[in-house]
Design brief:
Rossmann fold; 4-stranded mixed beta sheet; 38% helix; 26% strand; globular
């Protein structure tokens, strides 16, 4: 049994309001469902950022300024790596680099690494499984220049204060001259954003509820998924999308491995994830008083998504 998983689930279900960490979405089924989410028509984020990597690859690499030196390309939260493949294909034969994909999901890393060996066989790959903050500590030891990719608006899973702390820690793991390419979803109206978290095919619903399935399987709990539902919400004024699991009835759920029961009122929610949306002002606020300086911004043709390039400078 994963003791940390049990500890975190117990803490979240014992809290008021209840919550569960989004990092536990990613078991094998969760990985597969997230790939389906990224490919569904409502989830514009994937296509918008992929467009940037596909149509502006040369401009991105030119901004990296790494033509004449060996460098490390580090990606935090690599996932299935579809966007990154556009970049790797461009770099493969004319640049001296190695690629370090980092992901919390060992399953996703194994699948992606296998794909890379087939599609970009000349790229040296060093996958690392783990949480971002844990892996970041080791990055400082890399002596070659680093280009760090943090794509897919993964920063949006953190509230601004926590995002600022993350950026500060990231900056501390970088050397002067290292660069960060940060992909973020831009602020826009609810009629565009909310369907991305509530697709018609139900993949996002299944992805959210799969967390309960995982708790049942790994912690011997008795969640009845038919009595819970996926409940997204988008606050357009603050620019944050929220995901909840909502109890459809008054009920009790037991985690048998610790003989503990949790009560749910009808319509009581478990908060599972936030998805922050950004504009220049928000980005500038998060990066204020760090050593990372904004150098360039790449956007897709519809201005839905942006990739910000930062460089570490001496304080």
């Amino acid at each position: 049994m994963n003791e940390q998983f049990l500890k975190d689930v117990d803490a979240g279900l014992s809290a008021n309001p209840k919550f569960l960490s989004s990092k536990y979405f990613y078991d094998e089924r969760g990985d597969a469902l997230f790939v389906k989410i990224m490919n569904c028509p409502e989830y514009y984020l994937t296509d918008a950022e992929h467009e940037i990597f596909k149509d502006q690859t040369a401009a991105l690499v030119d901004a990296f300024d790494v033509k004449k030196q060996k460098f490390e390309l580090v990606e935090l939260g690599a996932g299935d790596g579809t966007k990154t493949l556009e970049l790797l294909r461009f770099l493969e034969n004319d640049y001296n680099f190695s690629y370090l994909p980092v992901d919390i999901s060992e399953n996703a890393l194994q699948k992606f690494s296998g794909r890379l060996k087939t599609e970009v066989p000349n790229v040296l790959i060093n996958p690392q499984q783990g949480e971002y903050f844990a892996v970041l500590k080791s990055l400082k030891q890399i002596t070659e220049p680093k280009i760090i990719l943090f794509l897919g608006s993964n920063l949006g899973n953190l509230l601004d204060e926590r995002a600022h702390e993350f950026v500060q820690q990231l900056a501390q793991s970088m050397n002067v001259g290292d660069k960060l390419l940060l992909g973020v979803d831009l602020k826009k109206s609810a009629d565009i954003i909310l369907p991305a978290y509530n697709d018609a095919a139900g993949f996002t619903r299944d992805f959210n509820l799969n967390l309960l399935t995982r708790i049942n399987r790994e912690l011997d709990a008795n969640f009845d998924l038919s009595k819970f539902n996926h409940k997204p919400f988008y606050n357009e004024e603050e620019g944050i999308a929220y995901s909840f699991i909502e109890s459809q009835v008054t009920q009790d759920v037991t985690i048998k491995s610790i003989s503990k029961t949790y009560h749910f009122d009808k319509e009581e929610r478990i908060h599972t994830e936030i998805s922050r949306k950004y504009d220049d002002e928000t980005i500038d606020h998060i990066f204020a008083k760090t050593s990372l300086v904004k150098k360039k911004v790449f956007t897709d043709s519809q201005n839905l998504f942006a990739d910000y390039l930062f460089e570490k400078e001496a304080l």
